[in-house]
Amino acid sequence: MDTFQSPSDAHCDLAKFAALLSNLRVLNQQTLNRSASFSGTGLHSGNRVNMTILPAPANSGLCFRRVDLDGKPEVEARVENVSITNRSTTLAKGNVKIHTVEHVLAALAGLGVDNAVIELDANEPPIADGSARDFTQVIKAAGLKELPEKKEFITLTEPIELRDGDTLMTVFPDEHFKITCTSTDKKNRFTQFYSTEVAPKTWEKELSHARTFVFFEELEYLFKNGLIKGGSLESAIVIRDDAVLTTEPLRYPEEFVRHKMLDIIGDLALLGKPLKAHVVAVRPSHAANCELAKKILEQLSRPLRAAQAFAPPPAKAAPEPAATAPAMDINEVMKFLPHRYPFLLVDRVLTMDEKKIVALKNVSINEPYFQGHFPGHPIMPGVLQLEAMAQVGGLLMMKQMTGAKQIAYFMAADDVKWRKPVLPGDTLVIEVDMMKSRGKICKAKGVCKVAGETVSEAEVTFMLRDA
Predict the structure, then answer these.
(1) pLDDT at res. 35
(2) Burial group, residue 231, by CB count within 10 angstroms (0-12, 13-18, 19+)
């Protein structure tokens, strides 16, 4: 029997199909179809500048060209050419410098442009309105051209963390490019949070319009140091106390944090290839963004370590031979530990003697705490790793006790260190060495490992009490 489909149904199916196609990732490299130009004033230099973005061949990357200098010298948009990261990102090669490159790089990266030459007749791209909106529009007007060569992505083998004062940046392996960001000033004013996947549509709609901003008390310092000579309320938002000074209403409720994300995209474009990862940033800065890019490239330069991540774990990372039965399976563990779902953090005991126990916890994506810790980038809470050490240490003592059933009460934790994030799919190996015991009070050294690497450690004290 044939199925009747109305014209409206067919139109709906076509719309869905078109939407599906628009969401597909471009797998080939891209450049501009023709040149795109924009003129204006440099934010920090105050110089009048004409900028033209030209198509470039595959595998050439993004590059700046100073047409105002003899020989038209070029500076590749690579993190190794970063020279200054104070209030903006400056590239330098020899005596040739280009200041404030992040906004135009963000526009190119956000739209998926892999190869282009950015010609300038001054030392800084135009600031425009302080966002990347105008650059995005002229690039789109020029059109994009797909090249026959495949697009190469940067992917991670393990998370990377960067701390610098109040700044914390972490990047996790992911199938796409995502940014989750929290921004605030030193006085915790205008604290904002935003998270999105970065793709051409989300870039243009959710991030490209976000303008740069400055706090009023910073202006004197910037002027004294010869910066923001081309700045005005047409090119930046000024925040004075609780007032927002701008020539137009805020473009987004979270415009400040979205601009921070725009800067992250521009600075990470200096990797030279598009990134597939989830960047989680708290109080980011240009210095931290560029340092994170260096750490990402450093990880890629360790091919041996990357190969090991895909190889079977070495013998020392496999605490139990396949043919050896566990010292205690889960059923026996539950005879001694009173904890139950979702707080039982021991799946089985691998080895145990009078002074040491080695146990295992399989970290599954089904763990209930992953729903809120954190959405989009799940990490096992460090306090639960600490609790796992206490449970394993208590299990060692309870196994040796006879008579009344005991419960281990967690009393203290000292010298606690969390070294690496624990992710869904990891196997957490918990090693506990008994340091001393007096009566029913015990102190032990606990270490949690994943694939042989320490992820957390602490000295835990607990007391055994009758159940």
Answers:
(1) 97
(2) buried
Q: In what order do the strands lie in the sheet with 237-240?
A: 213-215, 237-240, 243-245
CATH level 2 (architecture), domain 154-301: 2-Layer Sandwich (3.30)
Task: Say if residues 132 and 106 touch (Cβ distance below 8 Å).
Answer: yes
Residue 319's φ and ψ, nearest 5 degrees, are -70, -15
Cβ 117 vs Cβ 65: under 8 Å: yes
Task: Specify the pLDDT at position 125.
Answer: 94
**According to the model, what pLDDT value does residue 52 have?**
98
* Residue 99 among the catalytic residues: no
DSSP letters of 150-191? Answer: EP--EE-SS-EEEEETTEEEEEEE-SSEEEEEEE--TT--S-
> Where are the domains positioned within the chain?
28-150, 154-301, 316-466
316-466: CATH class:
alpha beta
pLDDT of residue 213: 80
Tokens (6 digits) for 440: 């029913």
State residue 240's pLDDT score.
Answer: 79
Pairing type for strands 213-215 and 237-240 reads parallel
pLDDT at position 371: 86
Q: What is the mean pLDDT of each run of 10 residues along the chain (467 residues)?
A: 46 50 67 96 80 97 96 96 90 93 97 98 92 96 96 94 92 96 82 95 96 72 60 71 81 94 97 97 95 94 56 48 62 87 92 90 91 87 92 82 64 88 92 85 91 91 76
- The catalytic position among 209, 278, 286, 377 is 286
Active site residue 103: no
- Environment class of residue 194 by beta-carbon count within 10 Å: exposed (0-12), middle (13-18) or buried (19+)? buried
Q: Which pLDDT value is given to residue 161? A: 94
In degrees and rounded to multiples of 5, residue 272 shows phi and psi of 95, -15
Task: Tell me the C-alpha distance between 333 and 319, whole Å.
Answer: 18
Q: Supply the DSSP string of 392-442, one letter for each residue.
A: HHHHHHHHH--SS-EEEEEEEEEEEEE-S---TT-EEEEEEEEEEEETTEE
- What DSSP string describes 22-83? HHSPP-EEEEESS-EEEEEE-TTT--EEEEEEEE--TT--EEEEETTSTT--EEE--GGGEE
CATH code assigned to 28-150: 3.30.230.20
The identity of residue 3, as a single letter, is T
